[in-house]
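User: Let's play a game. I give you a shape written as tokens, and you guess the letters that built it. Ready? Here's round one.
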């Protein structure tokens, strides 16, 4: 409880920062194979923490060796997921979309083409590139410089076309690549009705910030995959509005600061609360083990002052003592538990100086050490008790 009562502003920032990181880590890994490994790591971390707190020597030693091997193994096994996380941490992603064509006509033509393909039961896969380049994530394909319109897309995705099975890449409003192949999603829990196109759309959207439009020839549906999530689009007007609003960052400007702040707090609040609780528990578990300094204002106890001499000034000297130790030990030290004793046996009339050293300070326990004394010297003015100096 002493740790909680002694919490500082920078401790609150420490907890909030790690809570935000843990929350985003959950969002990035959720639904991937690495998520189960992450949960397992948390369980092992809890066991390791308990072993440290209970001073289980052999268990702690084994875990220290185990962690070194495990970290290298996880980096090898989940390098693609780790790479995705590092790419999503890129600060330039927050700026928004890359500069696109100022005219929204290509978006309208794209929406019209997608629903026309769905109506004719022609499957299609269309990549809308944003900040991240997708060239190294997709394979195969043929470079093509063309306009984004119904005629071009219909000719590419008609069933008799040799380019029908691949994906189209749109960059800055123009078709630049056709018949490309996308990585499939390894996420669990995807609907069994989804075919290869939808899994490919989700797979690419998991690895970068691109949006992928998937047209199902079996169900005549148009869907949009972004950040590993799929949204079904009802009609071409809804698709046009969604793409135009997002591509040109109109939606963010329409929301007030209050609405954005409220959405930041309320959206996925159980996950955010869980992340905050988990980080707070870990912080409390480790906070007591960190080095900690505390400064105490302690009154100086005068010892061995000759009977015929009294102090004119200072009447009530105080010394500032800084002690250091583990937080669980140093944070509990109170000024009343520290004795600062000054021997004035050599006091004489007038002004005299006396040094106070660490040997003259008695601490309540041996787990903390003195790191600083201020001042280290006192000047006293003395006189005889009958009034003569």
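Assistant: Ready! My guess for every position:
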């Amino acid at each position: 409880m002493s740790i909680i009562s002694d919490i500082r502003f920078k401790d609150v920032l420490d907890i909030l920062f790690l809570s935000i990181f843990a929350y985003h880590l959950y969002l990035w890994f959720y639904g991937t194979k690495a998520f189960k490994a992450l949960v397992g790591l948390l369980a092992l971390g809890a066991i390791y923490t308990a072993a440290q707190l209970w001073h289980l020597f052999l268990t702690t030693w084994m875990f220290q060796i185990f962690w070194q091997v495990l970290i290298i193994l996880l980096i090898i096994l989940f390098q693609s997921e780790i790479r995705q996380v590092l790419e999503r941490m890129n600060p330039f992603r927050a700026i928004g979309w890359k500069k696109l064509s100022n005219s929204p006509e290509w978006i309208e033509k794209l929406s019209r083409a997608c629903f026309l393909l769905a109506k004719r039961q022609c499957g299609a896969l269309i990549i809308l590139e944003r900040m991240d380049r997708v060239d190294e994530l997709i394979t195969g394909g043929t470079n093509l410089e063309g306009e984004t319109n119904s005629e071009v897309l219909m000719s590419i995705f008609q069933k008799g076309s040799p380019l029908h099975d691949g994906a189209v890449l749109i960059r800055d409003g123009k078709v630049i690549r056709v018949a490309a192949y996308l990585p499939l999603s390894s996420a669990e829990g995807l609907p069994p009705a989804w075919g290869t196109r939808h899994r490919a759309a989700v797979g690419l959207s998991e690895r970068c910030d691109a949006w992928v439009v998937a047209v199902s020839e079996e169900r005549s549906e148009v869907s949009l995959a972004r950040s590993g999530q799929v949204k079904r689009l009802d009609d071409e007007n809804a698709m046009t509005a969604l793409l135009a609003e997002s591509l040109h960052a109109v939606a963010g400007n329409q929301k007030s600061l209050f609405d954005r702040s409220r959405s930041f707090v309320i959206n996925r609040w159980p996950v955010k609360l869980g992340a905050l609780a988990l980080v707070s528990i870990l912080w409390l578990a480790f906070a007591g083990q960190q080095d900690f300094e505390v400064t105490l204002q302690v009154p100086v106890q005068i010892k061995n002052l000759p009977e015929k001499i009294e102090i004119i000034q200072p009447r009530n000297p105080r010394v500032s003592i800084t002690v250091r130790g583990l937080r669980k030990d140093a944070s509990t030290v109170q000024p009343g538990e520290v004795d600062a004793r000054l021997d004035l046996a050599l006091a004489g009339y007038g002004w005299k100086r006396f040094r106070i050293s660490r040997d003259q300070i008695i601490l309540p326990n041996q787990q903390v050490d003195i790191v600083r004394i201020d001042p280290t010297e006192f000047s006293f003015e003395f006189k005889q008790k009958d009034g003569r100096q």
